[in-house]
Amino acid sequence: MSSLPIVLDNGTGYTKMGYAGNIEPSFVIPTAIAVNNGGSDATKVDKKMGDLDFFIGDEALKKKGGRNYSVNYPIKHGVVENWDNMERLWQRCIFKYLRCEPEEHFFLLTEPPLNTPENRELTAEIMFETFNVPGLYIAVQAILALAASFTASRDQDDHSRMTTGTVIDSGDGVTHVVPVYEGHVIGTCIKHIPLAGRDITSFVHQLMRDRKEAVPPEQAREVARIVKEQHSYTCKDMVKEFARYDANPTMFHTFSGLHHRTRKPWECDIGYERFLGPELFFNPEIFSSDFPESLPQIVDKCILGCPIDTRRALYQNIVLSGGSTMFKDFGRRLQRDIDHRVKKRIKMNMAKHPNFKGKVRFFPPSCSLCASPRRSLSRSLYCVHVSG
């Protein structure tokens, strides 16, 4: 079959779709669907067309708040919950956006780690029986992210790094820490945090509302999302960053917009939420007491739970994936915190065993002893060698 395979990556917040071989997805749309709830006159006249009266993506979000349509997000925390709407979403993705015949293309779909066999069977049933696809492959998102980081790097001679590493996948609904060794996911050590981009948006929204900023209520959440995506960054130290803002008022930015209905301009200040949003990953207690452990702690525990002979490779190749890891200096902060935890634990262990005193040496990521040069995309850590 000469037709190119189709890649469909359905996430909690956005759906990415396109043809295999392209550098970027052909279309990126919100994973939302607006279904007619019976209020349209056209639906009453011809009930046969009722099943086709729905919109997806940005068109669905425009219907939000209307009388005739109800907006639904079929995927929550990475797992499909509404299969009828999911089938409709796939139908529009294939025929409206990609404009192809599914019978002529192989399909690559993604799934979250630890996806249930029932969900995988339902996905295959819809693809084979409804769309008549000739071939289907369902891949774990972490393995695809690991392979993508390998193909995008300059150091492609080290083939072991292509299939071994720790993937931190943080999207809109959930954050997963997935250890992968030689292409196989170590399922018993997967960690997940129900804290991701949507929670950061809610947190920024709450901060701006508590400060009583002059933002129209119906636009407040959208403004919080824009502030998160375009103005947020990761700071080195939260306390020092507060002191910087207090000492320098120019750190506060002005955000302006137009009211959707009245078309009147409005302005608001954005300040602390610029760094407090991404700080949820490193100090989650400021958001909720239900999340006592930070992301560096989760990553460290995840790798420590793996077999001892795989830990060095997992520490050396940590790959960031997902939109919620794209904050400025996010990788540096994560590497620093993990590095601090590991070195502190090694020093404590060495103090308990005085026979090893003076025999431990820390080497930089480009260690000549293990011949593993650092790659820019992998956020590699250091190597530790014990002599004698």
Written account of the structure:
α6 packs across α7 (220-231) and α10 crosses α12. The chain has a five-stranded mixed beta sheet. It has helices spanning 41-45, 58-62, 83-97, 117-130, 141-151, 197-210, 220-231, 238-247, 273-276, 295-304, 311-316, 330-352, and strands spanning 6-10, 14-19, 27-30, 33-36, 54-56, 69-72, 75-76, 79-80, 107-111, 136-140, 165-170, 175-181, 184-185, 191-193, 253-258, 265-270, 318-321, 360-363, 383-386. With 388 residues, it is α+β, with helices and mostly antiparallel strands. Helices cover 33% and strands 21% of the residues. The protein folds into three domains: 6-144, Nucleotidyltransferase, domain 5 (2-Layer Sandwich); 145-194 and 291-386, ATPase, nucleotide binding domain (Nucleotidyltransferase, domain 5), CATH 3.30.420.40; 197-281, Actin, Chain A, domain 4.
Task: Break the fold down into its secondary structure elements and pairings.
Blueprint: E1 6-10, E2 14-19, E3 27-30, E4 33-36, H1 41-45, E5 54-56, H2 58-62, E6 69-72, E7 75-76, E8 79-80, H3 83-97, E9 107-111, H4 117-130, E10 136-140, H5 141-151, E11 165-170, E12 175-181, E13 184-185, E14 191-193, H6 197-210, H7 220-231, H8 238-247, E15 253-258, E16 265-270, H9 273-276, H10 295-304, H11 311-316, E17 318-321, H12 330-352, E18 360-363, E19 383-386
Parallel strand pairs: 1-9, 9-10, 11-17
Antiparallel strand pairs: 1-2, 2-3, 4-5, 4-6, 7-8, 11-12, 12-13, 12-14, 15-16, 18-19
Helix pairs in contact: 6-7, 10-12
Compact description:
The chain has 388 residues and is of the alpha+beta class. 33% of the residues lie in helices and 21% in strands. It has helices spanning 41-45, 58-62, 83-97, 117-130, 141-151, 197-210, 220-231, 238-247, 273-276, 295-304, 311-316, 330-352; strands spanning 6-10, 14-19, 27-30, 33-36, 54-56, 69-72, 75-76, 79-80, 107-111, 136-140, 165-170, 175-181, 184-185, 191-193, 253-258, 265-270, 318-321, 360-363, 383-386.
